[in-house]
Amino acid sequence: MHWIYLLLAITSEIIATTALKNADGFTKLVPSIVTLVGYTISFFLLSLALKSIPMGIAYAIWSGIGIVAISIIGYVIHQQTLSTPVLIGIGFIIIGVIIINLFSSTSL
Fold first, then answer.
1. So what's the pLDDT on residue 106?
2. Which DSSP state fits 37?
3. What Pfam families does the record tag this protein with (predicted)?
4. Which of 54, 68, 69, 67 lies closest to 100 in space, CA to CA?
């Protein structure tokens, strides 16, 4: 169940961060509310995941997947460019998350 909490925390964080871009400095009501509710849900679910998953592992996965997803959303929805160094960095993040999950005895 703790991995489901982490997955839902990541999803909520991605939704909140996407809404944060649309909140325009918290000047737009609906995206601002989505941002605040999304981050609240995300941190609550992350706290539940932390009951079973080591903090460093959970946070690495939570932030790593969030960075990759938000970069893709920024590219697709907001037409933000992803330079070669950015793509290389994202690749390293993906590799890091895979290494943590496949080879770390702490993540089990």
1. 62
2. H
3. Multi_Drug_Res (PF00893)
4. 54
SS3 103: helix
Chain Cα centroid distance, residue 9: 8
CA dihedral defined by 19, 88, 62, 11, rounded to 10 degrees?
40
Taking the domains of the chain in order of start, what are their residue ranges? 2-107
Q: Give per-residue pLDDT as tens, 16-39.
A: 999 999 999 999 999 999 999 999
- Residues near 69 by Cβ (< 8 Å), separated by ≥ 6? 10, 14
Its pTM stands at 0.87
Nearest to 58 by CA among 74, 73, 71, 47: 47
All residue ranges of the chain with pLDDT < 50 are 107
How many C-beta neighbours within 10 Å does residue 24 have? Answer: 10
